[in-house]
Each structure stands twice: as C-alpha cells, then as structure tokens.
Design goal:
The complex is a heterodimer of chains A (about 290) and B (about 300).
Chain A (H helix, E strand, L loop, with lengths): L1 H32 L3 E2 L5 E2 L5 H8 L1 H35 L3 H12 L6 H6 L2 H4 L4 H9 L13 H25 L3 H9 L4 H12 L1 H17 L2 H6 L7 H10 L3 H25 L2 H6 L1
Antiparallel strand pairs in A: 1-2
Helix pairs in contact in A: 1-14, 2-14, 3-8, 3-11, 8-11, 9-10, 11-14, 13-14
Chain B lengths: L1 H16 L1 H4 L5 H27 L18 H8 L6 H29 L7 H13 L2 H15 L8 H22 L4 H9 L4 H29 L3 H4 L8 H11 L4 H37 L1
Classes of the chains: A mainly alpha (about 290), B mainly alpha (about 300).
Chain lengths: ~290, ~300
C-alpha cells in the first residue's frame, strides 16, 4: 500500500512540480497581495489591511462590473447551450454515414486548435460599419443607416464569445450522447413514448453530465476573460478581469488582487454547485 | 478526441442496427437540425475565411470588403515593416516555446495518467488542483506568476515564467485527455508483459506506449496548439520579448491595415499544418494496426 502510494506520487511528481509553483503559489501570492498596501510606485508594503476588500465591495463601479460580467456569462452560456446541444445531437443521432459523421465532428473541432484572437478579429469585416452585414442590409433596403450596434458593442462581445466557446459545449455533450445506449430509446419508442418524451425523459437526463462539463468550461472562460470584452466592445463595456487588467496597468496591485480573489470565490462557488450535479472524475475517466 | 471518435464508432454501429430499421423516412426534426448544423459550421468558418481572403488585397486594401486588387503585399509588409513589430522574432519564439511545452506536456501527462489509473493517497487533491489550474482566470494567474518571480528576484522571460504559466494550462488538458485515453487501456496486456518477464520500463516502452500512441499524438496536438495560441497567461509573464499571440494582440490595438489579417492567415496556416500532421498520424497508426491485425 505504502509502496503503491510512493510510486503513484513519483509519477505525479512532475505534474506537481509545475502546478505548485505555477498555480498554487501564484494564487497565494495574489491572495497575499490583496491584503497589502501599495506604495504607489508598484511596490507592495507587507501590512495587513482589509481596505482593498472594502473598496472593492462597496464601490458602485465594481457592482456594475459584476453585473456586466454576469450578463455576458449568462447570455453566452445560454446561446452556447442552445446551439451546442442540437449540433451534438444531430451528429450522434441523425448522421447515418459514419465516415461523414466523423468528418463533420472534426470540422466542428478544428477551430478550437487555432488562434482565438484571430477568430475574434475575423468578425470585423463582417460586423463593421462598412462590413458585410451592414452593406447587405443596406443593399436590400431593410435599413437606411448602417447599424452601429453590430461592432464595438455588447452584442459583438456575446457574438465573439459564442463563436469561440460553443465548441466547449459540443464536445462534452457529444461524448455523453454517444454513450447513450440506443436500445433504451428503442424500448421507449416501442412502449409508446413520443419523441418529445424520449428527449425529456431519456436524452436530456442522460446528457446532464456533458452539459455540466461544458457549462464549467464556458462559465469559467467567460468570467476570466478580458480581451474579448476589451476589443469587441471597443472600450464601451468592461468586465471584472478587464478592470483588473486596467488596475494592474496603473500598478494598483492590491485592489486588483482583492477583486481577483472575490471573482475567484464566486467562480469557485458556481463551479462547485455544478460539480454537485456531476462526478467530474468518474465522468472523464469513463 | 480519438476517444470521442472511437466511442462514436460504437454508438454509430448500434444506431444503425436500431433506429434505422424502424423507418427510413427522415423525421422533420432532421431537416431542422441539419439547418442548425449548417448554420453553425457556416458561422464557425465564414468570418475566418473572410479575413483570409481580405489578406490578399493589394496596397489599397482596407479592413472591409469589397476586395481591392490582389497581391501578397501585406504578407511582405508583415515581415519587412518595422512598425508592425517583431513578427519574425515572436513567431520564432512561439514555435520554440510550443515545442518545449509539447514535449513536457506529453511526458508529464503520460506519467500522471499512469499514476491516476489506481486510487492513491491524495489523488483527489492533485485532481482538484489540476481542475483549479484549468479554470483559473489566465490573466490573474499570469500576474501571480509575475509577482512571484519579481519577489524571488528572477527576471521573467518566455522560457522560464511564460513556459511555466503555459504548462499550468496545457498540463491539465493533457492529463484529462490522458484519462480518457487510459480508460480504454486493458491492464491485462501489461500483466501479460510482466508475466513474460518484462521489466517495468520494458512494459511501458514496448506495450503501453505503442498501444496508446494515437492518444499520445492527441495530447501532443493539445500541447502544441494551446501553447502556440496562448495569450492571457503569457501576457504578464513573457518578459520583454513577445510571443506571437502577444504580437497579434498589440497589432489589434495599433495596426489598422490588412497586415493584421495577413498575420491571421499565416498563423492559421501553421495551426492547420500541425492539426493535419497530427490527425494524419492518428489515422496512419490506426490503419497500420488494422492491416497488421488482419494479416495475423
């Protein structure tokens, strides 16, 4: 038993040698910095103060930042789910040719391995004031003036998020759907269930774990993002992390750190609520 | 990925036996879902294709359609102009860093995957540490690493602090893929090898690694592409020399010419080559296995 534990730890030692100095310690550093004072020149005075947290929790600006971040998170989560679920369902239950199905799945996943920034800026020629959407709407006479709301707005931010993150919903949901034994569906249909019933009582409950896993990815990425908000809103919107970035830019480390700690706490609570619905470890190793 | 595909394989065979036999007429939902799928793929690739096309404009080119002439002007501009920054150098660094990250990710996640096949003391702690590292906001983590290096007194650079910061992102991904790959590995093969007198290292080298080869290629693909495109964690940890995504980031803020699109085209071509090589390798390994299995 002891030997087995020792060997196992020997095997995870390299992983820990990365995670401890590059995840655990940095997070502790940020936590520590949130209780420090700044000397105004980027240096930190190792005192203990709660002033940073008071600042963060009482300012109206922070409140607005959190509301904005939450709005983006909920909208993105909703749209990635509404698009991702049917896409995965279509691939698993409707495409009959196997080679075609595998190719279609690959087509969906390839952009995941390309640059996010490039995929984000690729909306500019479409959504811009003289972009494709506006010019075609103008040409068809639906609108008279170009729509300004398309680019550099909250709408553009949500579009960019959904564009980047739907894949994080598709893959886990796809996985859990592919694992459903089709004989269960057959049995239900034979027993007289309607196709809506099959969806409600079989497919959706059995794909819950995939939905949960996808949600964790989408929520944590949106809440931790700053560059999509910064670029796609054109500076008109901000999120918690983009404000954090501005604070760091002007060397306000303690305030930034306090805000990061609060954000991490919220994120942890949300994720552990999702994790109560699904055993992540069993899910992945299955 | 490969696992998803293999699982899919099984389920598809099942599906064909069952549902198809019932009726060959497609329900109306098929057409609706096919429309959703087509729309999704179009929205996925449409914008990207737009910027690839626009990057081939000539010197009059702008950021939007219509296309103004065609030439390679903006590609030349990208690598020769000073105002667009050090694209060549950052490209060079990004590739080197990605190779380093790939090798380390591959070895470390393989080892961790081996350990996680059985329960051990503290495994839940390691697992959640990994999940935490995966979901932590990249920028916050990057600043933590930056501050840590500053306090210890080591200057931040792309091959120290940025390397570590990127590994904290690629390793959890690698290990999760490894979990999925390992769950399909039959422990009996290993036991058989040991019974035949193989040492632990021989078992790993001659049995485990060849069997898991396609999965290991998938881990390498994750390692390379995630590092090559990584931005948030690298921003505060790369020190004075930029990696390619950082260069692109500064260009999105300063450059308003199609050279930004040209850079997008170049970096996407690199990604596609890597993806193609990896998927090709997986297909090739599986094919050769199929031939060998048949000839026996």
């Amino acid at each position: 038993m002891l030997r087995r534990n020792l060997t196992a730890w020997l095997y995870v030692a390299p992983l820990m040698l990365v995670l401890v100095p590059f995840f655990l310690l940095p997070i502790l550093v940020v936590l520590a910095a949130s209780f420090f004072e700044t000397d105004g020149f980027g240096g930190l005075l190792p005192t203990f103060t709660l002033a940073n947290y008071l600042d963060v929790l009482t300012s109206a600006q922070t409140f607005h930042l959190y509301v904005a971040t939450l709005k983006f998170t909920v909208l993105t989560w909703l749209f990635t789910l509404i698009i991702g679920f049917p896409v995965a369902y279509f691939l698993v239950f409707h495409v009959r040719n196997q080679l075609l199905a595998i190719s279609l799945f690959l087509i969906c996943t390839v952009p995941f391995w390309t640059s996010n920034i490039i995929r984000m800026i690729s909306w500019i020629p479409l959504l811009g004031k003289e972009g494709l959407v506006n010019s075609s709407l103008l040409a068809t006479g639906i609108i008279r003036e170009p729509l300004e709301v398309l680019l550099y707005s909250s709408l553009a931010v949500v579009i960019a998020y959904v564009h980047q993150l739907t894949i994080f919903m598709v893959v886990p949901i796809f996985n859990s759907l592919a694992r459903i034994d089709k004989r269960i569906v057959e049995a239900a249909l034979d027993a007289g269930a309607s196709r809506l019933d099959v969806m409600r009582y079989i497919i959706i409950p059995l794909s819950k774990s995939g939905i949960a896993l996808g949600s964790i990815f989408v929520i944590s990425i949106v809440m931790g993002d700053f560059f999509v908000v910064k670029v796609m809103s054109g500076g008109s919107s901000a999120s918690v992390v983009s404000a954090f970035y501005e604070n760091v830019g002007v060397l306000q480390y303690p305030i930034a750190a306090a805000s990061a700690v609060v954000l991490t706490l919220i994120l942890t609570i949300v994720i552990s609520m999702i994790l109560r619905a699904v055993d992540l470890r069993r899910e992945i190793a299955q | 990925m490969t696992v998803a595909l293999e699982r899919f394989d099984v389920s598809m065979t099942k599906a064909r036996r069952g549902v198809v036999a019932r009726s060959d007429r497609r329900p109306w939902t098929f057409y609706l879902l096919a429309a959703v799928f087509t729309f999704y793929v179009a929205a996925l690739y449409g914008p990207m294709i737009c910027i690839y096309i626009l990057s081939f404009q000539d010197i009059r080119g702008g950021l939007v359609f219509p296309m103004k002439g065609h030439s390679l002007h903006w590609f030349v501009d990208l690598f020769t102009q000073v105002r667009t920054g050090d694209v060549k150098g950052s490209f060079d660094r990004s590739i080197k860093l990605a190779v380093l990250v790939t090798v380390i990710t591959l070895v470390f996640s393989f080892m961790a995957g081996l350990a996680f096949r059985r329960r051990f003391f503290g495994d839940t702690f390691v697992f959640y540490l990994m999940i935490g590292s995966l979901v932590a906001p990249g920028l916050v983590l990057g600043i933590g690493v930056g501050l840590l290096f500053q306090w210890i007194g080591i200057p931040a650079s792309w091959y120290t602090s940025a390397l570590g910061a990127q590994l904290s992102w690629t390793l959890p991904f690698g290990v999760l893929v490894m979990f999925a790959v390992m769950s399909r590995f039959d422990g009996a093969w290993e036991e058989a090898a040991r019974d035949l007198g193989a040492s632990r290292w021989q078992t790993i080298r001659l049995v485990v690694i060849p069997v898991l080869a396609p999965g290991l290629v998938a881990v390498a693909l994750f390692g390379f592409t995630l590092s090559y495109d990584e931005f948030a964690r690298t921003l505060q940890t790369a020190g004075s020399l930029n990696t390619l995504p950082l260069e692109i980031w500064s260009m999105t803020l300063n450059v308003t010419s199609p050279s930004l699109y040209a850079l997008g085209t170049v970096t996407t071509i690199v990604s596609f080559v890597i993806i193609g090589v990896c998927i090709g390798a997986i297909v090739l390994i599986n094919k050769r296995r199929g031939i060998r299995a048949k000839s026996h």
